[in-house]
Design goal:
- By secondary structure, the protein is α+β, with helices and mostly antiparallel strands.
- It has three domains: about 1-40 and about 285-355, conserved putative lor/sdh protein from methanococcus maripaludis s2 fold; about 50-55 and about 210-285, Efflux pump adaptor protein, beta barrel domain (Elongation Factor Tu (Ef-tu), domain 3), CATH 2.40.30; about 60-210, RNA polymerase II/Efflux pump adaptor protein, barrel-sandwich hybrid domain (OB fold (Dihydrolipoamide Acetyltransferase, E2P)), CATH 2.40.50.
- The chain is about 25% helix and about 40% strand.
- Strands 1, 3, 12, 13, 14, 15, 16, 17, 18, 19 and 20 form an eleven-stranded antiparallel β-sheet that branches. A four-stranded antiparallel β-sheet has the order 4-11-9-6, with no helix packed on it. Strands 8-7-5-10 form a four-stranded antiparallel β-sheet.
- α3 (about 95-125) packs antiparallel against α4 (about 130-155).
- It starts with a helix and ends in a 7-residue tail after the last helix.
Length: about 350
C-alpha cells in the first residue's frame, strides 16, 4: 500500500501538459459544475467486514449464591444499572442459619480456649504444668482461632459487613436472610431466576457486566487477513467512535473461513449494544497524503485518472492515482495544495469541452 502511494506521488507531481479549460463563472454555472475541496484523510479504507460487539471477559460477571435457599425477593430487572454492593435479591437460606450457629460456636470455643491459655500460661511459668500440656493448650487456641477466621471469612463472602459480624457475635442475632449483592458497578444483562424459585448452591442468578469498555470481534476473510495490521482503525457507518485493532487471531474458523480481529472501542458510544452484529470498515493509517473525493470528480483522460483544479480563468487537468474506491467515493493520491478548489461534479462536461466535444454555454 505505502509503495503504491509513493509511486503515485512521482506520477502525479505534474499536470497534464496543455490540458486546460477556459471557462467563465457563468459558463461553470451553466454546465452544472460543483466546486469544493478534496478531503485530506490520514487512513485508507481497506474493506468492510461483519463484526459483533462483545464484553472483555474481566468485565463480565455471573452472580451466584454459595448457599441454597428460596428466592424471597428480586430487586432488579434486566437493563438496570447497579452499583457495587447493591442488593440484587434476597434468599431465605437454612444453610445460612447453620453457618451463623457454627460461627457462634467457634467464637465461644475460642473464648474458652483463651481462658485456658491464660490459666495454663501462668501455671507453666510457675512450673506447675509440663511442657507437653502447655504446648497442647497453645495449639488448641490456634485451632479454635482458625475456626473463627474461617467462618468469619465465609460470612464476609456472603456480604456480611464488619458491623453485622460484631452484632452477630455480641448479640447472637441470627437470620436466614441472605442478601445477594452486585460484585461490580454495571448493567444487569440477564436474570436467571424469579421470586419464589428455589436456588441451589452455586447456581447462577444474574449476569452483570461493566460496559465502560466494549470490543468488536471482526470476522476477516482469511485471504485478506495479511492486509490488516495491529493499530488499524475500525469505523461503523453513522456511528462516531474510535476503535483500534489490538489482536489478530492465529487460527482460521473452519466453518466460515475467517480469522478473528479484535478491536477495542474507546470510551462510551451510544447506539451500540452487546451482542449486536454490524458491518464495520477497516482503515489503515498512512504517512502519505491522500484525499477522499466523490466518484464524479475523477475521469479518465489520456489513460490517466484525472480531476480538474479551478484556476482564475477556468480549470487545469491534474493526473491522480486512485488508491481505493467504493460506490460513492474514491481515495486518491494527488499533488494538491490545501487551497486548491476542484470540480466535485461536472468532470465529464469539462472533459468534453477539453476534447472539443461540447460547448461552454
Amino acid at each position: 500500500m505505502n509503495k503504491l502511494i509513493m509511486m503515485a506521488f512521482v506520477l502525479v507531481s505534474f499536470s497534464l501538459q496543455a490540458e486546460t479549460v477556459q471557462l467563465t463563472n457563468v459558463q461553470i454555472q451553466n454546465l452544472g459544475i460543483e466546486l469544493g475541496s478534496a478531503q485530506e484523510i490520514t487512513s485508507i479504507p481497506l474493506f468492510d467486514a461483519p463484526a459483533q460487539i462483545t464484553i472483555p471477559p474481566k468485565n463480565d460477571y455471573i452472580v451466584s449464591t454459595l448457599y441454597a435457599g428460596l428466592i424471597k425477593k428480586i430487586n432488579v430487572a434486566v437493563g438496570d444499572e447497579v452499583k457495587k454492593g447493591q442488593v440484587l435479591a434476597v434468599i431465605n437460606s437454612p444453610e445460612l442459619l447453620q453457618l451463623q450457629r457454627q460461627h457462634l460456636k467457634s467464637v465461644n470455643d475460642l473464648k474458652l480456649s483463651e481462658a485456658e491459655f491464660l490459666r495454663d500460661q501462668k501455671l507453666f511459668k510457675e512450673g506447675v504444668i509440663s511442657d507437653r500440656r502447655w504446648l497442647k493448650t497453645e495449639m488448641s487456641r490456634q485451632v479454635y482461632r482458625s475456626y473463627v477466621d474461617e467462618t468469619r471469612q465465609l460470612l464476609k463472602s456472603l456480604g456480611f459487613s464488619t458491623r453485622q459480624l460484631k452484632n452477630l457475635e455480641n448479640k447472637h442475632n441470627i437470620s436466614s436472610q441472605l442478601n445477594i449483592a452486585a460484585p461490580i458497578a454495571g448493567v444487569v444483562l440477564e436474570r436467571k431466576v424469579k421470586a419464589g424459585q428455589k436456588a441451589d448452591a452455586l447456581s447462577a442468578l444474574f449476569r452483570i457486566a461493566d460496559l465502560s469498555t466494549l470490543w468488536l470481534d471482526i470476522n476477516i476473510p482469511q485471504q485478506r487477513i495479511n492486509e490488516v495490521q495491529l493499530g488499524d482503525k475500525v469505523t461503523v457507518l453513522g456511528v462516531e467512535m474510535n476503535a483500534k485493532i489490538f489482536l489478530l487471531g492465529q487460527n482460521v474458523n473452519t466453518t466460515t473461513q475467517t480469522v478473528l480481529a479484535r478491536a477495542a472501542i474507546e470510551g462510551t458510544v451510544k447506539n451500540l449494544r452487546v451482542g449486536q452484529v454490524l458491518s464495520v470498515q477497516i482503515n489503515q493509517a498512512t504517512d502519505a497524503v491522500v484525499y477522499r473525493v466523490p466518484n464524479s470528480a475523477v475521469i479518465k483522460l489520456q489513460s490517466h485518472d484525472t480531476l480538474f483544479i479551478k484556476t482564475d480563468s477556468g480549470f487545469i487537468a491534474q493526473a491522480v492515482i486512485v488508491v481505493r474506491k467504493n460506490a460513492q467515493n474514491l481515495i486518491i493520491s494527488a499533488a494538491l495544495k490545501k487551497t486548491d478548489i476542484i470540480a466535485l461534479k461536472g468532470a465529464v462536461a469539462l472533459k468534453a469541452n477539453l476534447l472539443g466535444l461540447g460547448g461552454a454555454e
